[in-house]
Amino acid sequence: MNYRKSEAKEAARAQFRGVWAAIPTPFTPDLQVDEAGLRHNMRHLTGNLKIEGVFCTGVMGEFWSLTKEERKRCVEIVVEEAKRGGCKVIAHTAHHSAHETVELTLHAQNVGADFVILMNQYYPPASDQTMYEWFKFVADRVDIGLWMFDAEYSGFGMSPEVTARIAEIPNVCGIKLPRPIEHYRKVHPLLYNKIVISEPSESLWLNNMREFGQKVFQSSPAPYLMQTTKWLPMREYTELGLNGKFPEAEKVAATMQPMRELMGKWMRAPWVERKLIPIANIKAWCEMVGMAAGPVRPGLPQITDKERQELRADLERTGLLGRVQLAKAA
Question: Is residue 292 part of a domain?
Fold first, then answer.
């Protein structure tokens, strides 16, 4: 981190811009962390996709299945590769134990992460007051800037009022808000002048720039699932939108509609309709676009051979896999 604790809010406003990606933790066939694969992915993200920042060891990273030592090691690798590739790192360091959260957060701070993010306390059941106390306990014991991660699938969704209260803590500097847009509209006027706000749906990103002045897409798998080397429409329309060129941005964003429909089928539908976190689908998609991924760990279902074949056929119809092959041949 390149700021003092008292400067966290100012630093976040300056450093959170553009497209950030929430990355998977690749595993080997015997379910060990694939360190070489993680390095490969980071070099693809920074070198080929020009990602501004990476969110690691979060939901996409299957954090609940990682040991504390594995979480630390993944953060170390991501930070090393991010420094080499010139992107920022926000590490997810939450644990249902506040003391473990402090330990993981201090580790991320000490190895060079730029910021950390904490999903809502996910056990035991919380109230607004205990959620505030949990964030305050952690924030008081670290210097690094903290983001809230207000995900209802943690088991608790924060009220606009408690997010505004937590935002007053000196080193709380942002919130990732995967909540309905109606909730965003309630929270935005309370937080906009205090901390960075990011709603992480690619399909809403351009409108959020225009309607709410959102400056950062923080974060989802979309930047690496929906783009390839030498074909970066999300990056292109983001830069156009951030520079106020919305008609041009809309034309570029429209080229991604076939991938949006597949994201709905393979990610949103399982998540929303069946309450199933579709990490196996995401990992299979990653492998088809040249990234390391491997299986998921116990607690999540693996993708079936039939589903994998269907996903590949869907991606081929969009032309995305053809673009991957062209990039490899270049």
Answer: no
Q: Domain with 193 in it: what CATH number?
A: 3.20.20.70
Over the stretch 217-263, which tens digit does the pLDDT of each residue have? 999 999 999 999 989 999 999 999 999 999 999 999 999 999 999 99
> Which of helix, strand or coil describes residue 296?
coil
Q: In whole angstroms, how far apart are CA 4 and each of 10, 62, 145, 168? A: 10, 31, 9, 16
**Can you tell me the distance from the alpha carbon of 262 to that of 318, in angstroms, rounded to the nearest whole number?**
9
pTM of the model: 0.96
**Dihedral (CA of 21, 149, 190, 183) sign:** positive
Expressed in angstroms, the distance from the first to the final Cα of the chain is: 37
* Among 130, 153, 171, 180, residue whose Cα is nearest residue 275: 153
Query: What is the number of other CB atoms lying within 10 angstroms of the CB of residue 318?
Result: 17
Segments forming the whole domain that contains residue 175 = 5-245
Q: Does residue 77 lie in a domain region?
A: yes
Specify if 268 maps to a domain: no
- 52-104 per-position pLDDT tens digit: 999 999 999 999 999 999 999 999 999 999 999 999 999 999 998 999 999 99
Domain count of the fold of the chain: 1
pLDDT at 156: 83
Query: CB under 8 Å to 1, separation ≥6 — which residues?
Result: 11, 109, 112, 113, 114, 115, 143, 144, 145
Q: Is 50 left (phi over 0), alpha (psi -120 to 50) or beta?
A: left
Is the Cβ–Cβ distance between 63 and 296 less than 8 Å? no
Residue 293 lies in a domain: no
Element housing 197 (H / E): strand 196-198
